[in-house]
Amino acid sequence: MNKTKLVKASALILLGFVAGKISQAQAAEHYVIKSGSIVCFYEADYDAQMKALGQGYDKTVENCGVAGRDIPVIVIHQNMFSASEVQAVDGGTRLFVGIESIGVKQ
């Protein structure tokens, strides 16, 4: 393979990689925390909130609240049995929510 063909092939590979990364970033921004979902700033507080709900308390615990709107997020870590970690697109705040609270914006 001559040098020109190698440079062109390398450029195409790089362009494909960059395009793939851009499309992944765009896709990630379509996830949202659904309006009305319980949201906490710390995983331990999310666990405490779930225990409180399980015992019949209908108030939020410290560092937790209810999302008043759909919040665009990037999913950092999905967890089926505890809190999932997300990062708000607008502001970058890390939050913990239940996996069922994460939706896809249509």
In round numbers, the mean pLDDT is 82
Number of helices: 2
Distance between the termini: 47 Å
**Assembly annotation:** single chain
Could you tell me the radius of gyration in angstroms? 20 Å
Sheet with the most strands, sense and barrel status: 5 strands, antiparallel
Sequence stretches where pLDDT stays below 50 over 5 or more residues: none
Strand order of the largest sheet: 6-5-4-1-7
Approximately what portion of the residues adopt beta-strand conformation?
25-35%
Name the shape in a single word: globular
Secondary structure: helix percent: 25-40%
Order of helices and strands, N to C?
Answer: HEEHEEEEE
Structure classification: alpha+beta
In total, how many beta strands?
7
Secondary structure layout:
Elements: H1 3-28, E1 31-33, E2 38-40, H2 43-54, E3 64-66, E4 71-77, E5 84-88, E6 94-97, E7 102-104
Antiparallel strand pairs: 1-4, 1-7, 2-3, 4-5, 5-6
Model description:
The protein is of the alpha+beta class and 106 residues long. It has 2 helices and 7 strands, in the order αββαβββββ. The strands form 2 sheets. The protein has a 5-stranded antiparallel sheet with strand order 6-5-4-1-7, with no helix packed on it. Strands 2-3 form a two-stranded antiparallel sheet. A hairpin with a 6-residue loop joins β4 and β5.
